[in-house]
Write a structure and sequence with these properties.
The chain is of the alpha/beta class. It has one domain: D-Maltodextrin-Binding Protein, domain 2 (3-Layer(aba) Sandwich). Helix content is 43%, strand content 18%. A six-stranded mixed β-sheet has the order 2-6-1-5-3-4. The chain is globular and about 65 Å long.
Length: 147
Amino acid sequence: MEKAKTMKRALSVFALVLSGLVFATRPAGAGEIRIIANRSVGAASVSAEEVKSVFLETRTVLKGGSRVQPIIVKSSVYSQFVELYLGKTVEGLETYYRSLIFSGTGSIPKTFSTDVEVVAYVSRTRGAMAYVSASAQAAGVKTLEVK
């Protein structure tokens, strides 16, 4: 009888941990941000880790084989994107990009100030990948589901 209770508790804890892992793959608050890409990008979805790797310039190719380049938009969701997806502060990200330049291993991604500008650029630039607010008009680009 005691062994059955212990087993039941262990299964409950396992289920709780597993559900936490499933829901932890997409950052909390990410519903206000949409990841967009040029239609040439073959992927329909990306992991939060892939988004982070692309914007930190440690990855230029998604798992499906599409080559991508990150585009920054300093709009209303900029700091939220940086914190949720990249795990940095805005100042920390800017320092990180400067260190890439200094070391010769990277550069600051092309940067825009509005969702409208970035959507227009992404729509006409092969491999471009960016983020916009969830309410932004995103005609001419594809939205990537973050899993």
